[in-house]
User: What shape does this take?
Amino acid sequence: MTTDSYKTYLERAFEDGLAEIRGEGKIECIHYKAANHSERWADPEEKVRAEFWSELIYKYEYQPECIGLEVRVERRTPDDKADLVIYANDERKDRYFVFECKRADISDAEFSQAIEQACGNRASLGAKYCGVIAGLTRRLLRFDKFPAGERDRNVLPDIPVRYGKPPDWRFYKNLNGKDLAAVPREELRSAIRKCHQTLWEGGRRSPIAAFGEFCKIIFIKHRDEKDPNRENGKPYAFQRRSEESAGELAARIYKLYAAEQELEPDVFTDKINIGPAILAQCVEHLEGISLDRTELDTKGVAFEEFMGSFFKGDFGQYFTPRELIAFAVEVLDPKRKDFVLDPACGSGGFLLYALDHVRREADRRFPERCTDTKQHTDHFIYWHDFAEKNLFGIEINEELARVAKMNMIIHDDGHTNIVGHDALDFLDRIESKKETLKRDKFDLILTNPPFGSVVKRTEKSEGYLEQFELRKYLGKSTTGSEPDESAKGESDAKRGAKAVKDRSSIKTEILFLERVHSFLKPGTGRTAIVLPDGILTNSSLQGVRNWLLEHFQLLAVVSLPQFAFAHYDAGVKATLVFLRRLRESEQVSDDTPIFMALADNIGYDATGRKTFFVTVEKEEPGKEKVELQRSDLFDYRVTYEWSTTNPKKPDWSERHREIIPDTGLVAQYRAFKKDPTSFFV
Assistant: This one.
């Protein structure tokens, strides 16, 4: 049995006999005893109302007898009713507070309509206050000293306790019953989705511009929660104060952002480009969530799913499917002392999975951290030092670099090592941006460089292409504009510099190979890199392959299906290649074994539908389920909890996902490294 501190308000109401569920199936209903009122329990809005009704009783101390449901409003329409009404006393004559309760996922337009409905009901019923409750998003308005038409300056941050004085703020640091709380994944997803829809403004902003502004807001929210100068009992800044206009709130948020910009000018370089009304709505969606207290798994899954859907379509080129990232990380097996880089980091997926890999190692090393204070500290230091000091990313697109920084912040930092710059620029310029981004520095590089685009000499500064040795190994046909001329490509490679003069452009994926080589430690540095199959198969690129084998040991080649990137509108046939940088003058014997594999089932198909082979390991109906999900790459163990967030369609909601070590091709590669002979028949 859960303790009282972990029961929901509604669970307490059921236990205390204030409400009960009657009937089954289609006739199942909830009965509110004091009001002698029943409603269909399958109604999506009824669960919202029931939970809020019980919150009024247990948190705000209103007697059940003083709360009315479906209260008739005398208007032109005789059937118009208010969802919830708090009466001034148990005689139920004078009305004190009027509420409308809506689904958590309603749109901004629907929320605005609900506000007008609540205000109209309040005016007709003669109450002082009214409000709309839609999941975590709430808006309360006071009319005891404001005119009936006011909708901005009359904001009330919270419901008065037992008819008391209206509070100035809603959330206070470490104040019992008034602090920010962790939230379930579904509620976090809903809040994130609503926030992005608000910022999108029905298409006035591009999705990626809206996401960029969202990152700034999350940044402020995160920093406000972790402000070390805020004393216990003091209010958080990321919330709307009593009688504070949207303009006044926005001015305060802008000021908070500017202060953080001064502390870390490289994180966000431009101002917040959101008007006061839109910003106030975003604060409304997020103010009740504690990002700091919400479990890392919950935050990770919610944000990853959100970004996964966001990066499809026009932005698919920037997103690497997570199954491929997880596989590459498992094969390279990063350790906490390794320096890890992604020179084309996009939203930061490779870096986050490397961090998760090290965090799981910390979980194994410190299994008693929840009860042992020293183990808890050692566990945190083990992975957090890695996040803060060993993970690095470079991203040429500033907006995407911002997304990566935000992603790192959500996963407890490392964001200051994300650099918005061209990874193919001169190395001294990159180092000037971040002094730790040195050549010969990194133990591991995990990356999916951009395919197909061409670097043209005319668009770059003098000497830009000339810094790359690989240009001497290329025929003209590798620039992307000439037909395949295999023989000419090979002869050009042999002639060297003379052929180089004619070359005015080179494909980015070719240049990235050399840049990866520059950043890796000689002799020990390893990389997992996604390459288009053309680099491995086109006869005109034999020179590139010659260079590759002169500078790297080829460890493994895993061919991916044609559709591997199709779900993200990038249909290029690609392969995951694993390499080790050679030491100066080191040579690899021609008969050195290379692990080669073909992955057919990679966990999803061309439409994005999951294709794992699923086995249910454990299931408690209506509570918890554990699945084993198998693919050619590796196996997952996934834990689900039963979710009724969408009452029309309750379903299993993912709570935790972990890779089972040494499964699939990961296990085969481990076995191959120990003894490759059995792989060759």
Remarks:
- The first strand starts at residue 19 and ends at 22.
- The mean pLDDT is 87.
- Residues 4-163 form a domain with the tt1808, chain A fold (CATH 3.90.1570).
